[in-house]
């Protein structure tokens, strides 16, 4: 019944989504594009996780389009599923309208806490697939191009066994997402997913055009050379997470060479949204603006 309801939701929102895409998502993109000329090499978005410390203290999910435009003057927004208050039609319609009003493109939804896609029990894995479907539907309605799943897991077995189980799950999710034209991505985010060779193996085993990666600049295992790892992941990238930590007063980023990471992305021919995900100690406002300034030097 749950599966049927979600499929009905996708079908019921398809026509609405198409109409809204014509009036809304396309309009929002046009506004953003007018502020981000085509001569620029890429666009910049804000990952909502950058502001997570103040969630429900100074802002809620509906405030994000305004914050992205008024406080940071950025063109794109990347959601976190756990920040959604009430993802029903009226709420989503209002969220989409606010994005249109502020000329903010809704880029993707990062999805956590919806089950283990590589669980040792197949019934658990398939339930996780079903749990993710609603976010595919919501991404479609909002005009996003993708969702981001989480491959971090502590389930028994070797990394190769976990990859194989996750591949089965993500293949099933991609087959569902294909109906809505939504891509499914995985981020290097702990466990086997922080090992680039395992992520590449996952992509190859899923073997679906809707599936790809969201490389994060910061979430590699300690033994991994992050620069070489990023190079290896770029052929499969459908989105980018510009993880940044503390900046020095001169705008440099001592934790790792952020400029070099950006150059690797651009050398690979990527020209989509670069999502700022600030995780430093000082107030996020200053950190996000420092990262924006660094990225703009490369545009």
Rg estimate, integer Å: 18 Å
Q: Tally the helices: what do you get?
A: 9
Quaternary state, please? single chain
How much of the sequence is in beta strands? 5-15%
Instruction: Report the structural category.
Output: alpha/beta
Low-pLDDT segments, ≥5 res: 1-37
DSSP summary, beta strand count: 8
Question: What would you note in describing this structure?
Answer:
- This protein is an alpha/beta fold and 299 residues long.
- The protein has one domain: Divalent-metal-dependent TIM barrel enzymes (TIM Barrel), CATH 3.20.20.
- The chain contains nine helices and eight strands.
- The protein has an eight-stranded parallel sheet with strand order 6-5-4-3-2-1-8-7.
- Strand 5 (183-187), helix 6 (196-206) and strand 6 form a beta-alpha-beta unit.
- The longest helix is centred in the N-terminal third of the chain and has 34 residues, at 2-35.
- Residues 1-37 have low confidence and may be disordered.
